[in-house]
Amino acid sequence: MAYFIHADLDAFYASVEQLDHPEYRGKPLIVGGLPGDRRSVVSTASYEARKFGVHSAMPVAQAVKLCPHGIYLRGNMERYRQKSLEVMAIFADYSPVVQQLSVDEAFLDITGMEGLFGPPDVMAKKLKEDIRSRTGLTLSVGLASNKYIAKIASGMLKPDGICIIKPGDEEKFMRALPVGKIWGAGAKTQEEFKKRGFKTCEDIYRLSLEQLTSIFGKAFGLFLYRAVRGEAAAAFDEERGSHSMSAERTFPYDLYDEFAIETALFEICESLVWRLLDEKQQSRTVFIKIRYGDFITESAQETSANPVTSINDLFDRLLALFHKKYKSGMGVRLIGAGLSNLEDPVPQGDLFAPADEKESTLEKKILEINKKYPNAALKKGRSWLG
User: Fold this and answer.
1) How many domains does the chain have?
2) Three-state DSSP state, 232
3) What is the average pLDDT across 242-251?
């Protein structure tokens, strides 16, 4: 029997700030920008701030109206990355297969780990306790037989919760949920649910696959059909075989701020290049995926003569693809990117410019230091992003 944990750090950026600054604890804290900042959006709001209606991806200007007496910070990404590395290192102690979705969440495949950590439910509790004692942060956990159910379960008892869906109970769990809990159904889909009187997943369950595809289209109709039955709905992109790697970021709300989307894309580039270096591979083909709030998904790929040489190089390539495909003004629910046709590096003589060589060498050194000293949390600067 397969078992998956979806581990989600609670209000991550805000929690790190409250950990480092005791004076912020118990107060409404909003990380993302200061009142008056142009184009700034909320990255994370503490649970105290959420009581006022403040949430991630909300414009800071709107947050100020809802919570004028809150504490507003631009945040410290280097510090958040450091804590993220600490957490991911602990995850790796519990599973050889950790799929990091973003800086604050990951899947752990714990299938077959019972001999080391005990039953899956015991392991999930140990993981939470370990994260708290070693990092000072709280973790909400979902445990299930597939990733999709584990993802939804992790959000059921936030913050600091644990929700276990036993094998065989997946369909029962999903059918009882309100449609708002369907992960992957954006704002426009929720409007369609409301218009048709769908209140719970049971309402969708009663429809045949043919009815669902006629209403929502072939791709999303099939997705809904599988999701409400507790099956492993295709909400996550697995690696495209052994010759590719990918990563993606799903936003809790449709995101319209292009700067925020680009920042998420840069973080994906970091993750991909570290993996590329760690696995001693190279790639000339990059691809990008954009999923809008209405679940329409677009993708594009491009192959160049020269392989990716650095984080900046990969970001430049993907950013060009993004602006080529992005439908301006539409809310983005998910941004993903990857590298395909991976191959062993071949000596290229003087193919790359000295600047590229220096940048690539620097990244390799950072990777070596981070692997040897996990708490070092070295990263490249991002001030050039603007």
Assistant:
1) 4
2) coil
3) 78
Does residue 115 sit in the same domain as residue 125?
Answer: yes
Give percent above pLDDT 90 in the chain: 48
CA distances from 101 to 12, 98, 379 (A): 14, 9, 18
Would you list the DSSP string of 94-147?
A: H-SEEEEEETTEEEEE-TT-HHHH-SHHHHHHHHHHHHHHHHS--EEEEEESSH
* 190 and 320 together in one domain: no
Distance between CA 40 and CA 36 in Å, rounded?
Answer: 9
3-state secondary structure of 13: helix
Q: How far apart are CA 182 and CA 93, in angstroms?
A: 31
Task: Indicate whether 147 and 256 sit together in one domain.
Answer: no
Domain encompassing residue 273: 244-378
Average pLDDT, the chain: 84
Alpha-carbon span 320 to 301, nearest angstrom: 11
Q: Which of 197, 227, 257 is the last residue of a domain?
A: 227
Lowest mean pLDDT among 43-47, 125-129, 260-264, 347-351: 347-351
Enzyme catalytic residues:
105
SS3 of residue 244 by DSSP: strand
Same domain, 248 and 374: yes
Burial of 288 (0-12, 13-18, 19+ CB in 10 A): buried
- C-alpha distances (whole Å) from 80 to each of 44, 85, 193 are 12, 9, 37
Check: pTM over 0.90? Answer yes or no. Answer: no
pLDDT tens, residue by residue, 191-204? 899 999 999 999 99
pLDDT digits (tens, 9 = 90+) for 274-298: 878 777 888 989 999 999 887 788 8
In a domain? residue 316: yes
Q: Is residue 347 part of a domain?
A: yes
What average pLDDT score do residues 377-385 get? 42
Strand partners, 213: none
**SS3 state at 82:** helix
